[in-house]
Amino acid sequence: GHRLINMDAQAPNRIFAQWIRQQEPGIAVHPEYRYGDSRLDFCLERPEGLHLVEVKGVTLEREGHCLFPDAPTERGVKHIRELQRAAETGLDAVLFFVVQIRDIHSVAPNDATHPAFGEALREAAAHGVRVLAYDCDVTPDSLKIRREVPVIL
Question: What is the structure's pLDDT at 2?
């Protein structure tokens, strides 16, 4: 259709790192942070403590609403469980959806494709993991985080 969708699987982490540095100049951003049995995408070192972030790129769109994942992801479930454990110990933990499409109405777990991911995400959110989603401006040559969109759990 008329939508541009960025399909670069490496882009979400790259643009998240750029975006967070612009949002919070001066914080330390540590990529590929080892926590528990996982390597999470980022650890942000803030004055109030560590903030763990797992970034997921979203490209599956249906009538203005996005779903994640587009294929089963046991690794994704593992990362959610690590974020939940971190939140339960008092660390700030977030699953951050980078929607690689503009003007999206919402993001939701794709329970039809991977029910375990949706279950893990809802459980983690109930235990303190924040779940955020931002859509992006997309051009043939660029991807830039734009605005927050609702996450429907």
Answer: 77
